[in-house]
Amino acid sequence: MSSNLAKRIIIALLGAPLVIWLIVLGGHFFFLLVIVIALASMNELRLMVKETNATTPDFLLFLASAGLLADFFYGFMPVSELAIAITIGFSAIELYRNRGIATHNLGASFLTVFYISLSFGTLFWLRHLDDHGLFVIITLLSVWAADTFAFFGGHALGQKIFKKKLFERISPKKTWEGYLMGVAGSIFISSLFNEMFPLPHATEIDAILIGAIIGVLSPIGDLIESMFKRDSGLKDSSEILPGHGGFFDRFDSLCFISPIIFFYCRYIIQI
C-alpha cells in the first residue's frame, strides 16, 4: 500500500464518523460543518482562478459566500433575491477596481461565489427533509462509495475491457471500468443504507435511483474541478487533507450532486 493511499484511508476513517455525527445532530452543528467545507472549498477555488490572472475582491467573496450559505440556513430573504443583490453589487464595484479585465474578473468572482455556495447551500434544504439527516447521509455515503469503488475498480480493471479512457482531455486517469464500478458501488450502498435506515416518504426504487443518479452524475463534479485545475495549472486545490488534497478535492462531487438529489426529492418524491 502506498503512503498516499494509507494517508487517504486514515483521514477517511477519522473524518467520516465525525461528519456523519454532525449531520445527525443537525442544527448549528450541521451549519458549522457545511460552512467550514464550503468556505474552505471556495477559498481553494478562489486561489485557482487567481492563477488564470483574474483579480477578485477577496473579502467580498467570503462575505457573499457566507451570506448565501446563512440565507439557505436561516431563510432571512429569498436566495434568488440575495443572488441578484450580489450580482449587481459585484458588477458595480468592478467599475472602481480598474485591475485586469473586468469581464474576466467578474466571471471569476461569480463562479467562485455561486458555484460553491449555491451548490453546498442545498445541503441545508436536504437536511430539512427529515429529522435525522438521512437524505444528506445517503447522498454523502453514495458519493464516497462511487469514488471509492471507482478508485479501486479503475486500478484493478482499468482499460482491460474498454480501451478508451472516460474523459482523457480533462482527467487522463479515469477509466470506464472504474466509472462503472463506481455506479455499481453507489447503487449498492444507497440500497443497503435504505434497508438499514429507511428513507421517509421514499420507496426502495427511490433509494436505487438516488444511488444510480449519484453514481452516474457525481463524477461530473470531479471532472469540473479537474477542468478548473487544468486552467490554473494546479495539481490539487490544496494540501490541507493528507492523501486527499484540499476540501474542494474531497467534496467536489458532493458540491455538484447535492442540488440534483434535492431536486429529485423535491419534485420526484415530492417531499
What's the number of helices?
9
Q: How many domains comprise the coordinates?
A: 1
N-C termini distance: 44 Å
Mean pLDDT: 92
> Strand-residue fraction?
under 5%
Kindly name the structural category. mainly alpha
Low-confidence stretches: none
The percent of residues in helical segments reads over 70%
EC number: 2.7.7.41
Enzyme class: transferase
Protein name: Phosphatidate cytidylyltransferase
Pathway: Lipid metabolism; Phospholipid metabolism; CDP-diacylglycerol biosynthesis; CDP-diacylglycerol from sn-glycerol 3-phosphate: step 3/3
Q: What would you say this structure looks like, in words?
A:
Helix content is 76%, strand content 3%. It is mainly α and 271 residues long. The chain has one domain (3-269). Strands 1-2 form a two-stranded antiparallel sheet. A hairpin with a 3-residue loop joins strand 1 (165-167) and strand 2 (171-175). Helix 2 (27-50) packs antiparallel against helix 5, helix 2 packs parallel to helix 8 (204-232) and helix 8 (204-232) packs antiparallel against helix 9. The longest helix is centred in the C-terminal third of the chain and has 29 residues, at 204-232. It is globular and about 55 Å long. The model has no long low-confidence stretch (mean pLDDT 92). Belongs to the CDS family. GO terms for molecular function: phosphatidate cytidylyltransferase activity. It is found in: Cell membrane.
List keywords for this structure.
271 residues; mainly alpha; 9 helices; 76% helix
Q: In brief, what are we looking at here?
A:
This protein is mainly alpha-helical and 271 residues long. Helices cover 76% and strands 3% of the residues.
